[in-house]
Structures are given as C-alpha cells and as structure tokens.
Sequence to fold (173 residues):
Amino acid sequence: MHLLLSIKPHYVEAIMDGRKKYEFRKSIFKQNKIEVIYIYSTSPVQRIVGSFKVGRVYSGTPEHLWAQYGTNSGLNEDLFFQYFGTIKKGFAIQIDELRKFQVPIDPWIVIPDFTPPQNFRYLTDRLEDEMIEKGYSSSSPCEQKARIRVSQQPLTSLPGSWGGASRISRSRA
Fold:
C-alpha cells in the first residue's frame, strides 16, 4: 500500500538534500503495510516531488525521539519540540531509497478529485496506473521512464516547482 504525505517545502528540501533522514509525526497511519510514501510538497509548490520506501517506524516520547534521531531530523531542537508540543508519544518514519522526481507530479492530473491531505492520504495501487497513463513512470526504482527520472538536482531548481507564484493554475488533461 502507498501513502501520500503532506510536508512543508522547507522540510521537503531537507529530505531531498539528505539532512532529514526521518519524518516525524504526532500520529501514524493505521495500515501496517505501507511500503512507499509519496511526498506532497505543500503550498506554494503543490506537487508530488518524490517518494521513498518506508524503513522502520519508531515510536516514543518526543524526548526519546530527539535523543535517538535528532541529528538526522533536519530540525533544530526548538522547532522539534515546538512541533510536538504537549504530545506524549510521537513517531519517526525512516526514509529509505529516496527518489527525487525531476518533473514534479501535478496531483490534480493523476489523482481524481484530489484534495491536499491535512496529514496523509492512503493511495490505491491505481495511482501507479494513473501515472503511467498520464505519461509518468512507475515507482519501481529500476523502471524510470518518461517524465519521472531520479535526479540529484535540488528541488528549488526543478522546473515548475517553485516559480515564485503563490498559486499554481490547474488544467485537467
């Protein structure tokens, strides 16, 4: 099963450049068999910019998570504890096999009736079919076709990813 995770652009950058090796959450998905997480970069980007395989998922108090994974959090200590607030238990999702999409995916084109998730959204396996149908490739690391290619470019240099516009126009194909 796959998941679409909403992440602020600043933290997406930290993931893409390798400073953030764990994604921290106050709550975790209920499905145990999440294999791939697609990264939805929130406004102003509003695109699916990459994916990663779920490594291990760790849980614990924010203090424990910071002590164990803080150096790979992409956050400073104040922001980390500000995020968790009074929450007593948090989660650290290990980011494995990160894929950066050279051309970010417009979710309004590949996901029918797309609404940006507040936190995360389960995806059906049909997303893969939709991506291929719309000219994007499979998420298989060895099958990189068409317009999605693994890239070492920083997200800010990807075409159409920032553009300075506060709103990105949508056109349905």
About this structure: The radius of gyration is 16 Å. Strands lie at 2-7, 22-25, 36-41, 47-60, 90-105, 120-123.
